[in-house]
Amino acid sequence: MKEERWGEIGSKFAHLTSVHPCYSEKAHFKFARVHLPVAPKCNIQCRFCTRSLNKCEYRPGVAGCIDTPEQALRRVEEAAKRFGDHLRVVGIAGPGEPLFNEATFETFRLVRERFPDLILCVATNGLLLPDKVETLSELEVRTVTVTINAVSPETASKIYAWVHYNGKTLRGVEGARILLEKQYEGVRLATDKGMLVKVNTVLIPEINDEEIEEIAMSIKEAGAVLMNIIPLIPLHEFKDRRPPTCEELREARRKASKYLPQFRLCRQCRADAAGIPGVETHEWERCGSPAVVSEYFHG
């Protein structure tokens, strides 16, 4: 997408883009967000993902503990006191899949009632997005980030070990096909509901690097307004794979920028991150209840 089209979108959604630190480079250095770690369960297994409860790793899929919705609300109250008017976004990004955890929706309800002016944001793998988009709309969730790493089921099957949907665990191309169908459908439906949709894509050399341009074209057609290509963090089954070089990342963003503007400041945050991303890069908040750790589910 050309620069001028992003200008049009930015104008239409200025009330969101101008203050969301994960959608705007200016806001990234000015406004705070708080992530609420209320979603431990996940319904897919990425071959690069290891979810964990700890205080020493700075990456997605990690949190210090799992909060109940009530504890999460207190976390927002503390963040509001600490960051004042700089706090603009409350997000749920794990450490599992938010839409696969009922606590996500109860948390959003509590936050919406207590802080009606804050932007509610969710980061999802997209599998359940078509099923949950109506609920998200009713809760006034305004921004959605969907992680989409492929266009073809064959490529996706190399990235995902399994997909759990409608009570069945599917593997290989079968599971990958359903995941992709739901992801792209979810982007379209969320867009139709007036939500601002960004797509994250993990760049994995020798696996999905040749599909980056096609992913960008496809998500643009589905309604996404922004793309965030992030480098692979080698973990789990992909622990021995190499991350992309800086040049490979630049080239992928160059190709994708023909279709969508690129967000280039992503810090691949923890599921309990808080603060202004461009200023506070290692801000981990105190656990609400260590006892909840025993209920953590690792799929």
List the helices and strands and how they pair.
Blueprint: H1 3-12, H2 14-17, H3 25-28, E1 32-35, E2 44-46, E3 52-53, E4 62-63, H4 69-83, E5 87-92, H5 102-114, E6 119-124, H6 129-138, E7 141-147, H7 153-159, E8 160-165, E9 168-171, H8 172-192, E10 196-203, H9 212-222, E11 226-231, H10 246-256, E12 274-275
Parallel strand pairs: 1-5, 3-4, 5-6, 6-7, 7-10, 10-11
Antiparallel strand pairs: 1-12, 2-8, 8-9
Helix pairs in contact: 4-5, 6-8, 7-8, 8-9, 9-10
CATH architecture: Alpha-Beta Barrel
- Bin the strand percentage: 15-25%
CATH superfamily: Aldolase class I
Q: What oligomeric state do these chains adopt?
A: single chain
Low-confidence stretches: 1-6, 281-299
The CATH class, by name, is Alpha Beta
Q: The CATH topology is what?
A: TIM Barrel
Number of helices: 10
User: Over all CA atoms, what is the radius of gyration?
Assistant: 18 Å
Summed over residues and divided by their number, the pLDDT gives a mean of 89
- The count of DSSP E runs of length 2 or more, i.e. the number of strands, is 12
Q: What is the number of independent domains?
A: 1
Q: What's the shape? A: globular
Judged by helices, strands and strand pairing, the structural class is alpha/beta
Fraction of residues in helices?
Answer: 25-40%
Q: What's the N-to-C terminus distance?
A: 37 Å
- The topology string of helices and strands comes to HHHEEEEHEHEHEHEEHEHEHE
Question: Biggest sheet, strands in spatial order?
Answer: 11-10-7-6-5-1-12
